[in-house]
Amino acid sequence: MSSNSDIDNLIDLMAKLPGLGPRSARRAVLHLIRKRARLLTPLSDVMQQVAATARECLNCGNVGTTDICDICDSEVRATGELCVVEDVADLWAMERAAVFKGRYHVLGGTLSALDGVGPDELRIPRLKDRVTAEGISEVILALNATVDGQTTAHYIADQLEGQVRLTSLAQGVPIGGELDYLDDGTITAALRARKEL
Amino acid sequence: MSSNSDIDNLIDLMAKLPGLGPRSARRAVLHLIRKRARLLTPLSDVMQQVAATARECLNCGNVGTTDICDICDSEVRATGELCVVEDVADLWAMERAAVFKGRYHVLGGTLSALDGVGPDELRIPRLKDRVTAEGISEVILALNATVDGQTTAHYIADQLEGQVRLTSLAQGVPIGGELDYLDDGTITAALRARKEL
Protein backbone atom coordinates (compact mmCIF):
# COMPACT_ATOMS: atom_id res chain seq x y z
CA MET A 1 0.00 0.00 0.00
CA SER A 2 1.04 3.55 -0.48
CA SER A 3 2.03 5.27 2.73
CA ASN A 4 -0.12 8.22 1.79
CA SER A 5 -3.25 8.37 3.92
CA ASP A 6 -5.21 10.51 1.41
CA ILE A 7 -4.68 7.96 -1.34
CA ASP A 8 -5.57 5.11 1.05
CA ASN A 9 -8.69 7.02 2.11
CA LEU A 10 -9.69 7.50 -1.50
CA ILE A 11 -9.25 3.77 -2.16
CA ASP A 12 -11.36 2.89 0.91
CA LEU A 13 -14.17 5.24 -0.13
CA MET A 14 -14.14 4.09 -3.76
CA ALA A 15 -14.34 0.47 -2.57
CA LYS A 16 -17.72 1.31 -0.98
CA LEU A 17 -19.32 1.99 -4.38
CA PRO A 18 -21.56 -0.78 -5.69
CA GLY A 19 -19.70 -2.80 -8.32
CA LEU A 20 -16.22 -1.90 -7.01
CA GLY A 21 -14.24 -4.03 -4.56
CA PRO A 22 -10.85 -3.25 -2.99
CA ARG A 23 -8.94 -4.43 -6.06
CA SER A 24 -10.95 -2.48 -8.64
CA ALA A 25 -10.94 0.54 -6.31
CA ARG A 26 -7.12 0.53 -6.34
CA ARG A 27 -7.14 0.28 -10.14
CA ALA A 28 -9.65 3.11 -10.38
CA VAL A 29 -7.61 5.35 -8.06
CA LEU A 30 -4.39 4.79 -10.03
CA HIS A 31 -6.34 5.60 -13.20
CA LEU A 32 -7.71 8.78 -11.57
CA ILE A 33 -4.23 9.91 -10.49
CA ARG A 34 -2.87 9.32 -13.99
CA LYS A 35 -5.74 11.30 -15.56
CA ARG A 36 -5.73 14.02 -12.94
CA ALA A 37 -6.64 17.00 -15.13
CA ARG A 38 -9.11 15.19 -17.36
CA LEU A 39 -10.85 13.01 -14.81
CA LEU A 40 -9.95 13.41 -11.12
CA THR A 41 -10.43 17.19 -10.82
CA PRO A 42 -13.64 17.36 -12.92
CA LEU A 43 -15.05 14.37 -11.00
CA SER A 44 -14.33 16.00 -7.65
CA ASP A 45 -15.92 19.27 -8.81
CA VAL A 46 -19.08 17.71 -10.17
CA MET A 47 -19.44 15.55 -7.03
CA GLN A 48 -19.40 18.70 -4.95
CA GLN A 49 -22.05 20.24 -7.22
CA VAL A 50 -24.26 17.17 -6.99
CA ALA A 51 -23.78 16.91 -3.20
CA ALA A 52 -25.02 20.50 -2.94
CA THR A 53 -27.94 20.37 -5.35
CA ALA A 54 -29.29 16.82 -5.74
CA ARG A 55 -32.64 16.14 -4.09
CA GLU A 56 -35.64 13.84 -4.35
CA CYS A 57 -38.74 15.16 -6.08
CA LEU A 58 -41.31 15.76 -3.32
CA ASN A 59 -44.05 14.49 -5.60
CA CYS A 60 -42.71 11.33 -7.27
CA GLY A 61 -39.32 10.52 -5.67
CA ASN A 62 -37.25 11.03 -8.85
CA VAL A 63 -33.76 12.45 -8.32
CA GLY A 64 -33.03 15.93 -9.68
CA THR A 65 -32.01 19.41 -8.61
CA THR A 66 -35.43 20.91 -7.91
CA ASP A 67 -38.09 20.20 -5.28
CA ILE A 68 -40.47 19.18 -8.05
CA CYS A 69 -38.78 17.27 -10.90
CA ASP A 70 -39.07 18.25 -14.57
CA ILE A 71 -41.42 15.36 -15.32
CA CYS A 72 -43.86 16.27 -12.52
CA ASP A 73 -43.54 19.92 -13.48
CA SER A 74 -44.35 19.36 -17.15
CA GLU A 75 -48.02 19.88 -18.12
CA VAL A 76 -47.45 17.77 -21.26
CA ARG A 77 -46.86 14.71 -19.07
CA ALA A 78 -50.17 15.04 -17.20
CA THR A 79 -51.69 12.31 -19.39
CA GLY A 80 -53.57 10.64 -16.54
CA GLU A 81 -51.18 7.68 -16.74
CA LEU A 82 -48.98 6.98 -13.73
CA CYS A 83 -46.13 4.48 -13.96
CA VAL A 84 -45.12 2.96 -10.60
CA VAL A 85 -41.47 1.84 -10.37
CA GLU A 86 -39.36 0.49 -7.51
CA ASP A 87 -36.34 2.67 -7.94
CA VAL A 88 -35.00 5.82 -9.66
CA ALA A 89 -32.82 3.55 -11.82
CA ASP A 90 -36.01 1.93 -13.15
CA LEU A 91 -37.48 5.36 -13.93
CA TRP A 92 -34.32 6.25 -15.87
CA ALA A 93 -34.53 2.92 -17.74
CA MET A 94 -38.15 3.71 -18.76
CA GLU A 95 -37.13 7.23 -19.84
CA ARG A 96 -34.29 5.82 -22.00
CA ALA A 97 -36.86 3.69 -23.82
CA ALA A 98 -38.65 7.03 -24.43
CA VAL A 99 -42.03 5.40 -25.00
CA PHE A 100 -43.98 6.35 -21.88
CA LYS A 101 -45.43 9.86 -21.96
CA GLY A 102 -47.05 10.06 -18.51
CA ARG A 103 -45.66 10.61 -15.03
CA TYR A 104 -43.91 8.30 -12.58
CA HIS A 105 -44.13 7.29 -8.96
CA VAL A 106 -40.95 5.90 -7.38
CA LEU A 107 -41.71 3.58 -4.43
CA GLY A 108 -38.15 3.54 -3.14
CA GLY A 109 -38.05 -0.25 -2.73
CA THR A 110 -40.41 -3.19 -2.35
CA LEU A 111 -42.45 -4.54 0.53
CA SER A 112 -40.36 -7.04 2.43
CA ALA A 113 -41.39 -8.75 5.66
CA LEU A 114 -37.84 -10.04 6.13
CA ASP A 115 -36.27 -6.57 5.94
CA GLY A 116 -39.17 -4.95 7.85
CA VAL A 117 -40.25 -2.77 4.93
CA GLY A 118 -43.98 -2.00 5.19
CA PRO A 119 -46.23 0.26 3.05
CA ASP A 120 -45.34 3.36 5.12
CA GLU A 121 -41.59 2.91 4.47
CA LEU A 122 -42.36 3.10 0.73
CA ARG A 123 -44.23 5.93 -1.02
CA ILE A 124 -47.51 4.00 -1.08
CA PRO A 125 -49.68 6.44 0.96
CA ARG A 126 -48.44 9.25 -1.30
CA LEU A 127 -49.38 7.14 -4.35
CA LYS A 128 -52.98 6.90 -3.14
CA ASP A 129 -53.10 10.67 -2.62
CA ARG A 130 -51.75 11.31 -6.11
CA VAL A 131 -54.31 9.05 -7.81
CA THR A 132 -57.06 11.32 -6.48
CA ALA A 133 -55.26 14.67 -6.61
CA GLU A 134 -53.89 14.35 -10.16
CA GLY A 135 -56.97 12.69 -11.66
CA ILE A 136 -55.10 9.55 -12.65
CA SER A 137 -57.03 7.20 -14.94
CA GLU A 138 -54.47 4.38 -15.26
CA VAL A 139 -51.76 3.10 -12.91
CA ILE A 140 -49.12 1.00 -14.69
CA LEU A 141 -47.28 -1.25 -12.25
CA ALA A 142 -43.77 -1.50 -13.75
CA LEU A 143 -42.26 -3.41 -10.84
CA ASN A 144 -39.49 -5.95 -11.25
CA ALA A 145 -40.57 -9.51 -12.03
CA THR A 146 -39.17 -10.74 -8.70
CA VAL A 147 -41.10 -12.23 -5.77
CA ASP A 148 -40.84 -8.99 -3.76
CA GLY A 149 -41.73 -6.87 -6.79
CA GLN A 150 -44.83 -8.92 -7.58
CA THR A 151 -45.93 -9.01 -3.90
CA THR A 152 -45.71 -5.22 -3.85
CA ALA A 153 -47.66 -5.00 -7.12
CA HIS A 154 -50.46 -7.14 -5.66
CA TYR A 155 -50.59 -5.03 -2.51
CA ILE A 156 -50.87 -1.80 -4.51
CA ALA A 157 -53.49 -3.35 -6.80
CA ASP A 158 -55.56 -4.26 -3.69
CA GLN A 159 -55.29 -0.73 -2.35
CA LEU A 160 -56.33 0.98 -5.57
CA GLU A 161 -58.93 -1.51 -6.79
CA GLY A 162 -62.07 0.12 -8.19
CA GLN A 163 -60.57 3.63 -8.16
CA VAL A 164 -58.51 3.45 -11.31
CA ARG A 165 -57.54 1.20 -14.25
CA LEU A 166 -54.64 -1.04 -13.15
CA THR A 167 -52.18 -2.58 -15.61
CA SER A 168 -48.76 -4.20 -15.46
CA LEU A 169 -45.95 -4.64 -17.98
CA ALA A 170 -46.34 -7.65 -20.29
CA GLN A 171 -44.22 -10.70 -19.57
CA GLY A 172 -42.70 -12.78 -22.36
CA VAL A 173 -39.65 -13.41 -24.49
CA PRO A 174 -37.28 -10.38 -24.46
CA ILE A 175 -36.32 -8.91 -27.85
CA GLY A 176 -33.27 -10.79 -29.12
CA GLY A 177 -33.86 -13.54 -26.55
CA GLU A 178 -33.26 -17.19 -27.41
CA LEU A 179 -35.72 -19.76 -26.11
CA ASP A 180 -32.93 -22.16 -25.14
CA TYR A 181 -31.55 -19.61 -22.66
CA LEU A 182 -34.88 -18.61 -21.09
CA ASP A 183 -36.14 -19.98 -17.79
CA ASP A 184 -39.31 -22.12 -17.63
CA GLY A 185 -41.34 -19.37 -15.99
CA THR A 186 -40.72 -16.91 -18.83
CA ILE A 187 -41.57 -19.51 -21.50
CA THR A 188 -44.77 -20.42 -19.60
CA ALA A 189 -45.75 -16.72 -19.33
CA ALA A 190 -44.98 -16.12 -23.02
CA LEU A 191 -47.02 -19.16 -24.12
CA ARG A 192 -50.02 -18.24 -21.94
CA ALA A 193 -50.03 -14.68 -23.30
CA ARG A 194 -49.53 -15.78 -26.94
CA LYS A 195 -50.94 -13.48 -29.63
CA GLU A 196 -52.68 -14.03 -32.98
CA LEU A 197 -50.38 -13.28 -35.92
CA MET B 1 -32.23 9.99 -17.82
CA SER B 2 -32.45 12.69 -15.28
CA SER B 3 -32.83 16.13 -16.79
CA ASN B 4 -30.16 17.41 -14.43
CA SER B 5 -26.94 18.08 -16.29
CA ASP B 6 -24.73 17.82 -13.16
CA ILE B 7 -26.02 14.35 -12.40
CA ASP B 8 -25.63 13.34 -16.06
CA ASN B 9 -22.09 14.74 -16.04
CA LEU B 10 -21.26 12.77 -12.93
CA ILE B 11 -22.58 9.58 -14.55
CA ASP B 12 -20.51 10.22 -17.69
CA LEU B 13 -17.32 10.79 -15.68
CA MET B 14 -17.88 7.77 -13.43
CA ALA B 15 -18.40 5.61 -16.53
CA LYS B 16 -14.82 6.44 -17.57
CA LEU B 17 -13.37 4.61 -14.56
CA PRO B 18 -11.94 1.17 -15.28
CA GLY B 19 -14.40 -1.52 -14.22
CA LEU B 20 -17.45 0.73 -14.50
CA GLY B 21 -19.67 0.97 -17.58
CA PRO B 22 -22.67 3.27 -18.14
CA ARG B 23 -25.01 0.97 -16.20
CA SER B 24 -22.83 0.51 -13.14
CA ALA B 25 -21.97 4.24 -13.23
CA ARG B 26 -25.69 5.06 -12.93
CA ARG B 27 -26.02 2.63 -10.02
CA ALA B 28 -22.95 4.13 -8.33
CA VAL B 29 -24.26 7.70 -8.75
CA LEU B 30 -27.67 6.84 -7.25
CA HIS B 31 -25.82 5.16 -4.38
CA LEU B 32 -23.67 8.28 -3.92
CA ILE B 33 -26.71 10.58 -3.87
CA ARG B 34 -28.41 8.35 -1.28
CA LYS B 35 -25.29 8.34 0.92
CA ARG B 36 -24.51 12.00 0.42
CA ALA B 37 -23.10 12.82 3.86
CA ARG B 38 -21.28 9.55 4.43
CA LEU B 39 -19.90 8.96 0.94
CA LEU B 40 -20.43 11.65 -1.72
CA THR B 41 -19.08 14.64 0.21
CA PRO B 42 -16.06 12.82 1.76
CA LEU B 43 -15.24 11.29 -1.63
CA SER B 44 -15.33 14.69 -3.34
CA ASP B 45 -13.13 16.20 -0.60
CA VAL B 46 -10.51 13.47 -0.65
CA MET B 47 -10.41 13.55 -4.47
CA GLN B 48 -9.60 17.24 -4.30
CA GLN B 49 -6.84 16.51 -1.77
CA VAL B 50 -5.37 13.76 -3.93
CA ALA B 51 -5.60 15.88 -7.08
CA ALA B 52 -3.58 18.56 -5.32
CA THR B 53 -0.95 16.39 -3.66
CA ALA B 54 -0.45 13.08 -5.52
CA ARG B 55 2.77 12.76 -7.52
CA GLU B 56 5.14 10.16 -8.89
CA CYS B 57 8.35 9.48 -6.97
CA LEU B 58 11.17 11.00 -9.06
CA ASN B 59 13.38 8.06 -8.15
CA CYS B 60 11.25 4.92 -8.55
CA GLY B 61 7.90 5.97 -10.07
CA ASN B 62 5.77 4.97 -7.04
CA VAL B 63 2.73 7.17 -6.36
CA GLY B 64 2.70 9.24 -3.17
CA THR B 65 2.54 12.81 -1.91
CA THR B 66 6.27 13.63 -1.87
CA ASP B 67 8.87 14.04 -4.63
CA ILE B 68 10.77 11.07 -3.17
CA CYS B 69 8.49 8.31 -1.85
CA ASP B 70 8.72 6.86 1.66
CA ILE B 71 10.33 3.65 0.41
CA CYS B 72 13.10 5.45 -1.50
CA ASP B 73 13.52 7.83 1.44
CA SER B 74 13.93 5.05 4.02
CA GLU B 75 17.54 4.06 4.81
CA VAL B 76 16.26 0.71 6.17
CA ARG B 77 15.18 -0.26 2.67
CA ALA B 78 18.61 0.35 1.11
CA THR B 79 19.30 -3.39 1.18
CA GLY B 80 20.99 -3.46 -2.23
CA GLU B 81 17.98 -5.36 -3.63
CA LEU B 82 15.91 -3.66 -6.32
CA CYS B 83 12.57 -5.12 -7.39
CA VAL B 84 11.50 -4.11 -10.92
CA VAL B 85 7.72 -4.04 -11.50
CA GLU B 86 5.57 -2.95 -14.44
CA ASP B 87 3.10 -0.80 -12.58
CA VAL B 88 2.36 0.94 -9.26
CA ALA B 89 -0.43 -1.62 -8.68
CA ASP B 90 2.22 -4.38 -8.79
CA LEU B 91 4.36 -2.48 -6.28
CA TRP B 92 1.33 -2.22 -3.95
CA ALA B 93 0.66 -5.97 -4.38
CA MET B 94 4.28 -6.74 -3.38
CA GLU B 95 3.99 -4.42 -0.37
CA ARG B 96 0.77 -6.13 0.76
CA ALA B 97 2.66 -9.43 0.82
CA ALA B 98 5.09 -7.56 3.13
CA VAL B 99 7.97 -9.92 2.38
CA PHE B 100 10.32 -7.79 0.27
CA LYS B 101 12.50 -5.44 2.29
CA GLY B 102 14.38 -3.63 -0.51
CA ARG B 103 13.41 -0.84 -2.90
CA TYR B 104 11.36 -0.82 -6.10
CA HIS B 105 11.62 0.45 -9.63
CA VAL B 106 8.34 1.01 -11.50
CA LEU B 107 8.79 0.75 -15.28
CA GLY B 108 5.41 2.25 -16.12
CA GLY B 109 4.51 -0.46 -18.65
CA THR B 110 6.17 -3.05 -20.85
CA LEU B 111 8.08 -2.86 -24.10
CA SER B 112 5.63 -3.25 -26.96
CA ALA B 113 6.52 -2.95 -30.63
CA LEU B 114 2.81 -2.88 -31.53
CA ASP B 115 2.05 0.08 -29.25
CA GLY B 116 5.36 1.82 -30.05
CA VAL B 117 6.68 1.57 -26.49
CA GLY B 118 10.50 1.50 -26.51
CA PRO B 119 13.02 1.51 -23.60
CA ASP B 120 12.99 5.32 -23.40
CA GLU B 121 9.20 5.43 -22.90
CA LEU B 122 9.70 3.24 -19.81
CA ARG B 123 12.00 4.00 -16.86
CA ILE B 124 14.77 1.72 -18.18
CA PRO B 125 17.57 4.35 -18.56
CA ARG B 126 16.81 5.51 -15.00
CA LEU B 127 17.03 1.86 -13.84
CA LYS B 128 20.57 1.57 -15.23
CA ASP B 129 21.58 4.81 -13.44
CA ARG B 130 20.13 3.58 -10.13
CA VAL B 131 21.98 0.24 -10.27
CA THR B 132 25.26 2.18 -10.25
CA ALA B 133 24.25 5.12 -8.04
CA GLU B 134 22.57 3.09 -5.26
CA GLY B 135 25.11 0.25 -5.24
CA ILE B 136 22.50 -2.37 -6.13
CA SER B 137 23.70 -5.97 -5.79
CA GLU B 138 20.56 -7.80 -6.99
CA VAL B 139 17.82 -6.83 -9.44
CA ILE B 140 14.65 -8.93 -9.03
CA LEU B 141 12.54 -8.84 -12.19
CA ALA B 142 8.97 -9.13 -10.87
CA LEU B 143 7.29 -8.57 -14.23
CA ASN B 144 3.99 -10.18 -15.18
CA ALA B 145 4.21 -13.66 -16.72
CA THR B 146 2.83 -12.37 -20.03
CA VAL B 147 4.59 -12.26 -23.41
CA ASP B 148 5.22 -8.48 -23.12
CA GLY B 149 6.32 -8.80 -19.50
CA GLN B 150 8.80 -11.56 -20.28
CA THR B 151 10.13 -9.74 -23.37
CA THR B 152 10.78 -6.69 -21.19
CA ALA B 153 12.46 -8.87 -18.54
CA HIS B 154 14.80 -10.30 -21.19
CA TYR B 155 15.64 -6.85 -22.53
CA ILE B 156 16.49 -5.54 -19.03
CA ALA B 157 18.52 -8.68 -18.27
CA ASP B 158 20.54 -8.05 -21.47
CA GLN B 159 21.19 -4.43 -20.49
CA LEU B 160 22.31 -5.22 -16.95
CA GLU B 161 24.22 -8.47 -17.60
CA GLY B 162 27.52 -8.68 -15.75
CA GLN B 163 26.83 -5.59 -13.61
CA VAL B 164 24.54 -7.14 -11.02
CA ARG B 165 22.90 -10.39 -9.89
CA LEU B 166 19.67 -10.85 -11.87
CA THR B 167 16.76 -12.95 -10.59
CA SER B 168 13.09 -13.35 -11.42
CA LEU B 169 10.05 -14.54 -9.42
CA ALA B 170 9.60 -18.33 -9.32
CA GLN B 171 6.91 -19.80 -11.54
CA GLY B 172 4.78 -22.71 -10.35
CA VAL B 173 1.51 -23.77 -8.79
CA PRO B 174 -0.14 -20.84 -6.90
CA ILE B 175 -0.99 -21.46 -3.21
CA GLY B 176 -4.45 -23.01 -3.07
CA GLY B 177 -4.30 -23.78 -6.79
CA GLU B 178 -5.75 -27.02 -8.17
CA LEU B 179 -3.80 -28.84 -10.88
CA ASP B 180 -6.96 -29.55 -12.85
CA TYR B 181 -7.59 -25.82 -13.31
CA LEU B 182 -4.01 -24.84 -14.23
CA ASP B 183 -2.83 -24.28 -17.79
CA ASP B 184 -0.21 -26.55 -19.39
CA GLY B 185 2.50 -23.87 -19.25
CA THR B 186 2.20 -23.47 -15.48
CA ILE B 187 2.27 -27.24 -14.90
CA THR B 188 5.34 -27.55 -17.17
CA ALA B 189 7.12 -24.72 -15.30
CA ALA B 190 6.23 -26.21 -11.91
CA LEU B 191 7.48 -29.67 -12.92
CA ARG B 192 10.75 -28.35 -14.33
CA ALA B 193 11.42 -26.33 -11.16
CA ARG B 194 10.44 -29.18 -8.82
CA LYS B 195 12.08 -29.25 -5.40
CA GLU B 196 13.43 -32.00 -3.11
CA LEU B 197 11.13 -32.58 -0.13
Automatic annotation (TrEMBL), chains A, B:
Pfam families in alphabetical order: RecR_C, RecR_HhH, Toprim_4
Any GO molecular function: zinc ion binding
Highest taxon in the source lineage: Bacteria
Zinc finger (C4-type): 57-72
GO biological process: DNA recombination; DNA repair
Keyword Repeat in annotation: no
Keyword terms of this UniProt record: DNA damage, DNA recombination, DNA repair, Metal-binding, Zinc, Zinc-finger
Residue ranges of domain Toprim in the record: 80-174
Protein family (similarity comment): Belongs to the RecR family.
Stated role: May play a role in DNA repair. It seems to be involved in an RecBC-independent recombinational process of DNA repair. It may act with RecF and RecO.
Name under which the protein is recorded: Recombination protein RecR
Lineage: Bacteria, Pseudomonadati, Pseudomonadota, Alphaproteobacteria, Rhodobacterales
